[in-house]
Amino acid sequence: MKTDTRADATTSPFNIVILGGGSAGWMTAAALANTLPQEHFNISLVESEQIGTVSVGEATIPGIHDFNRFLNINEQELVKATNATFKLGIEFEGWTKGGKYLHPFGPYGLNKNGVPFHQLWLKAKLAGEDVGELVNFNMEGLAAQQNKFSPKLNIPNFPIKHLNYAFHLDAVLYANYLRQYAEPKGVKRIEGQFEQARLNNEGFIQSLTLTDGREVPGDFFIDCSGFKALLIEKTLHARYEDWRHWLPCDSAVAIQSKSQPQVNSFTKAIAHEHGWRWQIPLQNRVGNGLVYSSRFMTEDQALEKLQSLVKEELITEPNQLRWVNGCRPEPWRKNCVAIGLSAGFIEPLESTGLQLIQSAIFRLLSLFPDKHFNQSNIDTYNRFANAEIASIRDFVILHYKQTDNDHSPFWNYCRNMDVPDSLKDKMEMYQQNGNLFRENNELFSELNWLSVMNGQGMLPKTTHPLTRQFTTQEIMSDLQQIESGYSRIVDSLPSHDEFLAMLG
Ligand SMILES: Cc1cc2nc3c(=O)[nH]c(=O)nc-3n(C[C@H](O)[C@H](O)[C@H](O)COP(=O)(O)OP(=O)(O)OC[C@H]3O[C@@H](n4cnc5c(N)ncnc54)[C@H](O)[C@@H]3O)c2cc1C
Fold it and tell me: What's the rounded Cα separation, in Å, for the pair 28 and 226?
């Protein structure tokens, strides 16, 4: 802190206190313990078993491999410890009148002379050719459709060497796993309930007071207390920006059921009249959840609906959840940074919760403070955090806006709502000539946007000028070769169930 002139702010031990032991708390603890030398940094984590965690957050996206590599985690061990399965993408059902589509993790076809593959596919499609579905040119999508899985493809002379995938994992076991990783590296766990924080004259947090009277002093506090945001909001009053007018689903009921006969290698997101529901298969059970807008459906109606839709035997009590889609423009204020649900949340449609946590951790490590808490570090952190979540927001809004569903007031609202200009611009550009452009290192790439725009029925008027160099006949011949090659290779892969059995 600026006024702390008693000790050299860069050499005396730096005490970090994490409040909360959900996925955010233990991911942060694990990453800091892995990076910060114990002789200079003390890390404590306060959590309360009585309060518990949100206990959802089971579908990940491929960025999780970066986090695992960073922690040097053996993924085979992680899969066993968290009852995980493999995820090649998300299947969307009922998001338009068109039925189903896949948003797979991975590229489509092969680019030609610098022209993106989808532009070639679109050119042939606009010329009236029978080009088939875009997913037929995507290895992950084809594998998911047949419930196949293999991380590596050892096929001579074939340019694709691996499939892009993520995991479905048990959120509670994941936090336990990271706790077992972090504690031997020096993280001190304090079981207890937070009551209030003590502040100094400048409004910086000095210590946490627990309900039994214990004090936990620190130099830097990381608020991982979930939706309660006990430090960043209740103590430091950082405001929250509400995006529910663009993302009206603000509630969910989650329940676990016994396994299905076949374990899918993808997440299911199935639309209903007032939102959607997820199906996330683990090795030993399925996570189910009905996401809905509380403006259009009550808790009781949601539970009844979910119970009627899940065919397998239910094995847990329902978990009712409420949130406000949005973000905190200042997730870092003074000597406190919020990570996880306390910093903001975009509903779980594209499984971005854990990804936002890991990128917040990496950003924090790059801009790590000393006791001076340099404001330009804090401002930079906040600027990038805002840009990241805003681009995810736009991507998720697209699924609701770009629909022809008209069977309920919920879908009519979504179809007709105004959307952010940043999203309007992206939609307009694609609509004109199929162009997609990834800005400022945003999380979702052109391929992700393409999957959803195409899947939700957008068809550009024309294509990129560079497609003029290829005739439709040339394109059709390439498409046929790619499609038959890909499908032959996918046919030869083991099923997801077989692959899981091989892992033992
Ligand atoms: C319906 C839903 C579905 C989701 N699905 C996905 C998904 O598929 N994929 C994905 O990546 N993300 C998903 N998420 C997001 C994901 O669950 C969260 O990002 C992740 O679990 C992190 O939560 P957290 O650690 O911030 O909060 P929590 O899990 O709520 O943890 C808060 C911690 O603070 C502690 N705490 C609270 N009050 C006190 C107190 N007074 N004293 C001491 N400790 C206290 C609690 O005990 C707990 O340890 C989903 C979220 C929701 C709501």
Answer: 13
